[in-house]
Amino acid sequence: MLMNIVAPYNTGRRFAGLLPEGEDLIASVIRMCIQHSVRMGVFSIIGAVRSATFGIFDQRQKVYVTRTVEGSFDILTCTGNVSPKDGKPFVHAKIILGDEKGNLTGGHLFSETLVFYAEFDLLEMIMEPYERTYDERTGLFLWPYA
Amino acid sequence: MLMNIVAPYNTGRRFAGLLPEGEDLIASVIRMCIQHSVRMGVFSIIGAVRSATFGIFDQRQKVYVTRTVEGSFDILTCTGNVSPKDGKPFVHAKIILGDEKGNLTGGHLFSETLVFYAEFDLLEMIMEPYERTYDERTGLFLWPYA
Amino acid sequence: MLMNIVAPYNTGRRFAGLLPEGEDLIASVIRMCIQHSVRMGVFSIIGAVRSATFGIFDQRQKVYVTRTVEGSFDILTCTGNVSPKDGKPFVHAKIILGDEKGNLTGGHLFSETLVFYAEFDLLEMIMEPYERTYDERTGLFLWPYA
């Protein structure tokens, strides 16, 4: 059995605010992290998008099956983290959207996802960064197992 | 391009507990914030409701399309924040509900939404409060853009 | 009217990492809490599962209606807390899953739910623990009302 990794971390700075309207959600989070030198963090966002791209990981084929939607969608949750991949800030997030009929959809968040408005809360994690590394078993770039 | 706003904030008090059964979720969060003089905060709630009202923002008509549901619904997520509007605590939250058939629904949370049980976790944000202000482009009361 | 309970708490340690692949999600969180002597906490998880069991509480019959699913599902949210029940760490969590067609399902999380990968963020709460106690009105083991 593989061990899980459990690292304690210290709470760094916290940031709250609005992501820029009409821009890509992931790109905006990354830009903010670069501007403020945040290497690792966790965040939560609520708001709305004009369009979104997201997918679910097919665990057998080891590929994301993606979809793109356009229209009026509220962001009901967008939960994710930032950690380095190839030395640069990388966002891993999931999003759930609601439409006017009361239907929900969502998945692993991709670009391009255009913000209508987005209120974020980001916590910087102070720790030895988890560098994302390719994991053969899952086919994903994961934090390292012990 | 509009700039996003990114304010660092300090972590204030944290509160956890149960919201009162049979009462409106938003009213209960506001009452708690007034009792404890919380001006800004973020919160997360899980539990169940007896009934709920929620909506999705129609970005063209600039109006919320709302729905009300009654019955046995678990609160799978309820993520939101508190910040002043017209000088009073205002709750902005999204909710996702699940029913017995495994179907999910949800949206922007409105009153009246009656709690069956609700476990909350609230973090006070120490910062110059973001006063909600009408934003012409979106038609929403948002935190101010720079 | 029953009063809500609102206890302030102090922020304890924070932990982030991966839950072990192929193991039950709830059991893994409990094992981690025992290993690190975490008595109360709140957590958030994103990732994917191979299979999951979850339910919605039927408020009239006072019983959970449960479902089990198998296949490729991303964990879009998994929000919960840890607090003692009969003196042992007990996990109360809700989960939302997405499938390849863009459909979402979820509910109150049960075992057995097998992790494909799961990135967690856990905050220890420093406070007099809320012992879960049977509540006659709801039929649930809740934190105590005042």
What does this structure look like?
- In chain A, strands 1, 2, 3, 4 and 5 form a 5-stranded antiparallel sheet that branches. A two-stranded antiparallel sheet of chain A has the order 6-7.
- The first copy, chain A, has 1 helix and 7 strands, in the order E-H-E-E-E-E-E-E.
- The first copy, chain A, is mostly beta strands and 146 residues long.
- Helix content of chain A is 8%, strand content 65%.
- The first copy, chain A, is globular, with a radius of gyration of 16 Å.
- Chain A has one domain (13-142): 2-Layer Sandwich (60s Ribosomal Protein L30, Chain: A).
- Chains in contact: A-B, A-C, B-C.
- Chain A binds chain B through residues 11, 13-23, 28, 32, 35-36, 44, 46, 48, 50, 71-77, 96, 98-100, 102-104, 116-117, 119, 121, and chain B through 1-11, 42, 44, 56-60, 65, 67, 77, 79-81, 92-96, 104-108, 125, 127, 130, 135, 137-138, 140, 142-143, 145.
- Strand 1 (5-18) of chain A pairs antiparallel with strand 1 of chain B.
Name its key features.
homotrimer, 146 residues, mainly beta, 60s Ribosomal Protein L30, Chain: A, five-stranded antiparallel sheet, two-stranded antiparallel ribbon
